Amino acid sequence: MQKQSTLLWLLALALGWAADFLFWKHTPGISFALYAALTLGVGLFLLLRAGLRPGRGTIPLLALILFFAVFTFLRSEPLSALLAHALTLFLMGVFALTYQGGRWAEYSLSDFVARFLGLLGSGLAGPQAFIGEVKTLKREAGGDEQRPNRVWPIVRGLLLAVPVVAFFAALLSSADAVFSAQLEALVRLFRLENLPEYIFRVLYISAIAYALVGVYLHAARRSADEKLLGLEKPLVPPFFGFTEAVIILGAVALLFGGFVFIQFQYFFGGLTNIRLDGFTYAEYARRGFGELATTAFFSLLFLLGLASITRREGDRQRRVFSGLGILIVALVGVMLVSAYQRLVLYEFAYGFTALRTYTHVFIIWLALLLVATMTLDLTRQLRRFAFAALLTVMGFAATLLLMNVDGFIARQNVARDLSGEGVDVAYLASLSPDAIPALAE
Question: Please, where are the H alpha helices in 54-150?
Answer without folding.
Answer: 59-74, 78-97, 109-142
